[in-house]
Amino acid sequence: MSTQLFMPTFRVDECLEEIRECLEKGWTGLGFKTVQFEDRWKEYTGLENAHFLNSATVGLSLAFKILKMQNGWSDDAEVITTPLTFVSTNHAILYENLKPVFADVDEFLCLDPKDVESKITNKTKAILFVGIGGNAGRYLEIVDLCKKYDLALVLDAAHMAGTRINGKVPGNEADAVVYSFQAVKNLPTADSGMICFREKDNDELCRKLTWLGINKDTYARSNDKGAYKWKYDVEYVGYKYHGNSIMASIGLVQLKYLDQDNAYRKQLANWYDEGFRNQPNIRPVPMASNCDASRHLYVIEVDKRDELLLALNESEIYPGVHYRDNTEYKMYSYAKGSCPNSHRLSERILSLPMHLRMKKSDVDNVVEHIVKFTNM
Ligand SMILES: *Cc1c(COP(=O)(O)O)cnc(C)c1O
C-alpha cells in the first residue's frame, strides 16, 4: 500500500446531511451555514470576530489591504515575513503593494525574533508570522516585538486550526488571524478560509470588501421585508471573496472533530518520535514547549534529503517539502542570501506522511525505510 503525504478524512454522512439541508432549503451561497460556521468558529477559538472566506490566500490579502487602508500605510511600507512558507503568504504582501522583507527562521522553522528585530526599519509596519505545521515557535516573543515597536501583527494560521499556546487558542493579540480550510489542511473542506480581525470595524469593512464593496445595511435598515433589496449602496471596489454554505457545511462537521483529529495526529507524531529516538542522523523539528500543536506536519531534518525523497518514492512513500526558501523564486530573488538558516534548512527538511488514515504500522514502515537509508 502506498503512503501519501496528506489524505483528508470526511465523515461523509454527516457532511452530506449538512449539505442536504442547504440543497433542500435552496440556499447554497453566502449566509445560512456560513453564519453558523462563523459563530461556531468564534465559540471554538474565543476570538471576537470571524468571517468565512473562499480561501486563506484572499484572507491574507484582505488583512494587508484593510490594515493599510485603516492605518494609512504608504506603498513602500515594509512587512517582515518568513521565506519558509507557501508563496501565498508573501504574495499577499505584494498584492497590496507593500514590500516583503525576509527574516530568518529558528529551530522551529518559524520566524526568529532576534533576526526579525535586526530587520526592523522606520518603514516597517507589520510582522507576518506563520505557524509552520501548527507550531507556535517563538510567536509570543514576536507579539512582544510588535508591542515594543508599535507594529501590526498578522498571523498566518493556515496550519494552526486547533493549536493552543499555554492552553489557549492564539490570536487575540494579533490584528488579524487567517486560517485555511483548503483540501489538504488539517481542517479540510475543499477550498475555504476564515479571517479573524481583532477590531470590530475591520471585520465590518472586510465583510463589505468580500462582497464587491456592497453595503447591505442600507436596505436592511430601510426595509426588512426585502422589497428594496436592490437598493444597497456600493462604497468600495470590493471583491468576490466570501465563502459559501456548501463549504461551511463541511467545515461545521470538521470542526466538531477537530480536537479529536488533532489528538490522533499527535499520536502519529509520538510514534514517529519514538521511531527516530537514538537516530543521530534524523532530527525531528521540535514543537515549542508551550505549544499544543495541531500537528498539520511532521518534519524531520536529514542529510541527503533529495536522495532520501527519491528512495522513499521507490517504496511508494510520498513525503513532501514545506517549504522551499521563497527567496529562491524569481519573484523574491531580490532577497536571495538574506536568510542563511532558512536556506540551509529548506534543503534538509522533509515532511513525512501525516493523516488520519495512517495506522501505527504505516508510521513504522516509513520510519523503517528512513532509518535504513540514513544508516547506509
Ligand atoms: C495553504 C496555505 C495558505 C493558503 O491557503 P489557501 O486556503 O489555499 O488559500 C497560506 N499560507 C500557508 C502557510 C499555507 O500552507
What composes the largest sheet? 7 strands, mixed
Q: What's the domain count?
A: 2
Provide the CATH superfamily of the largest domain: Type I PLP-dependent aspartate aminotransferase-like (Major domain)
CATH architecture of the largest domain: 3-Layer(aba) Sandwich
Fraction of residues in β-strands: 5-15%
Q: What's the CATH topology name of the largest domain? A: Aspartate Aminotransferase, domain 2
Order of helices and strands: HHEHEHEHEHEEEEHEHEHHEEEHHEH
Cα radius of gyration in angstroms: 21 Å
Mean pLDDT: 96
Question: How many beta-strand segments?
Answer: 14
Read across the widest sheet, the strand sequence of neighbours is: 1-8-7-5-4-2-3
Structural category: alpha/beta
Low-confidence stretches: none
Shape designation: globular
- CATH structural class of the largest domain: Alpha Beta
Q: What gap, in angstroms, lies between the N and C termini?
A: 24 Å
Report the total helices: 13
- Identify every distinct bound molecule in the structure, by name, code or SMILES: pyridoxal-5'-phosphate
Share of helical residues? 25-40%
